[in-house]
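pinging the channel bc i need a second pair of eyes. not urgent but kinda urgent?? the chain im working w is below, pasted from the shared doc
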Amino acid sequence: MKKLLLIQLFLSIGLCVYAQVPVIPQAQKVKVDELSDEQIRQVVVEMKRNKVPLDDLDNYAQQKGISASEVIKLKDRIRLLNLDKELASPSFRPSTDSPDNNDRGIDPDDMNYQSARDKEPMTAEERAYQARRKKIFGAELFTNKNLTFEPNLRMPTPLNYKLAAGDELVIDVYGYSEVQHKLKVSPEGNIRVPYLGPVYVNGLTMEEAKNRITKQLTVIYNGIKSGNTFVQVSLGAIRSIRVLLIGEIERPGTYMLPSLATVANALYASGGPSENGSFRNIQVIRNGSPISQFDLYDFLNQGDLTNNIVLQDQDIVRVNPYKTRVELTGQVKRPAIFETKETETLQNILDYAGGFTDIAYRDVIRVSRINNKEREIVNVPSAEILSFKLRSGDKFTIDSVLGRFSNRVYITGAVFHPGEYALENNMTVADLITRADGVKEEASMARAVIFRLKEDFSPSSLSFNVEDIVNNRRSVSLMREDSVVIYSKLALLEEFQVKISGEVNMPGYFSYSDSMQVGDLILMAGGLSDAASLQRVEVSRRIRNNGHSSTIDSTTSIVAQFDLNKDLSSANGFLLEPFDEVVVRRTPSYSKQASISIDGEVVYPGYYTIQSKREKISDVIKRAGGLRPEAYPEGALLLRKTFINNSDSALLDSKLQVYYNKLADSLAIRKMESTFSQKEQLLGINLKEIMTKPGSKYDLLLEEGDIIKIPKKLQTIQLFGEVYFPKKVRYDNNQSFREYVRNAGGFTSNALKKRSYVVYANGDVKSTKRILFFNSFPRLKPGAEIYVPAKKDSRGLSGAEVVGIGTGIASIALIIVTLLDKIQ
């Protein structure tokens, strides 16, 4: 019941148009409170589809008798579901204000024009059906949303248009008398002219109606007879007619259409012929007799709408089932399924398909035909296309021509115009080279190749001497699809390059050119760097042995060494050869500035340049103004780069990486990693001894990148690892290692006491010593850190492992006993 009321609501508010059967208005029975949220959403979907905004809902509902209270409830439900925004766009307003509709005063309820294809989203079966239907030639008229067959309401009234009840006539009297009347034809077929009375016009054409009305008006307007008053009669608002569409049609039923609607308009409104419907046998039945037969192919192929007659009230449009259909696939311009008449042949269908494409194979068309019991293949030669009779279900396949050429040859490589050429009678390789404007200067004249296909299309090759061909000492005939390749001597050689490294701005590889000198290569490399030396420039060269020698020589390259002048020329005029490698050395006395950093408790912390290779830690501390009074020398440390220069071994980096990976879980390593990267090593120094005895063994030479950190006086000790309460405590010179651990709660049961160690503020590390059965823990200093590692996890043997070991031992014992018995 709810579904019925919902449908009635759609119909009542004008959301469903072209009602197929008259509906008794029952909108008053609609109760919005009884509708589900999904039903409300369906109402909104229909409103969107028909471009009805929310603001116009009141007008539509009131015209159909829906109470105002129910309309308010409906709008509230729409807003509650946040669907009102979807109906707020001005684009949803109906197009009843268009000129086409207003000129004739069309009732909006009658002209809410909608196609049968505007419906709910299709199911999978419906989509498959539509896909099959789209293959039918002409179906796109009813599936393409860009096409429309809405009647033209602004056209002049057709001469054969017959008036009926519901039409409106506009009578315009002008001249000596000026008056205008808009009169509707009554159900009895009359119009009532003021001061004159009824005039019967039903069934009259516009011309007949004008003559009758003019004759009647002469009674009250004398000027009509004398020619001083004139009468103009035109059609105003037109009536709606009821047309029945039956047969093989997408949506058969009764449709309300404007009285100017034609057969095509009715077909479009109903969705067009169905999958089994005929496009060529559409009948219009009037008063029980067929009066017209409409063929859509006349319109599709010739634009002929002669039989697209204007419908009248109670007309029946019947779409008959098709009788014969064939399908064209392959190389035609419009592959599709075509409906045929009995007199048509394959040529007619090809014409409907637009003819062959440019690459169609036209000699033979293959047909898959259905016989009474089985299928068969029929070949249609081109000479029989015009007379070939068709059967329903025939499927014609038009192949494409082969992708190969009948007279093509290629030439590529070192010729001036490579490409494809036509194979002419008795054509030779010399002729083809001439067509290509000859060989280039760098062509390899000793040997070229023809790649050829045998009769079975297996590949083969044929070589020839180009010089013999060009000088007509030899002739080689060509065959279809031959490919001639003339090789270039430059392409056959390895690319000539030279290399330069050392003190140039852009070291690397460069292309070699003839007569190149070292100075030329230096310029190509961006010139010399600031550290470059013009002396002892070295060139290494490949050893080439073109002959055969039995002498074994261990020399792998030729090396030349010489000095360059200021203009980069060499005194001996040395010329480079392909693959030479040039090395420009650094000036021995050249040295870049090297700096170190001092951070912490010195008077002037910051960066300092190393003045000499013998400068030590004490020297730079003095340059920094010395230590501050609050400095703690015992906690000073030095960070030094792992790699000082390019000569350092890469093995060191690998060892350090393994070292850090092994100690990754150590808190000490994690703390050190937070202060410096793995490319820097922590180097413990004794700054107190350095400053007391400058130049002593503790006073290290400085290196580039060194970082010296001098902390303030430290007053704490930090505990990590297997103690019950790891924490930082105040340093007390009178407390021992055990006392600090005891203040932190003592060792845990998992503590490995004998492996405890201390990391001092300067980075030095001391571990616990074992003296007899006692542990000798390191002495502590301010800033020190105590680390107590954990024991390794150990577990006893499981029952299965014990059994396995016992079984193994028993097996070994048995083997030994057996061997002893054999020996005895």
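so The first helix runs from residue 2 to 12. and DSSP finds 22 helices and 37 strands in the chain. — does that match what u expected or am i reading it wrong
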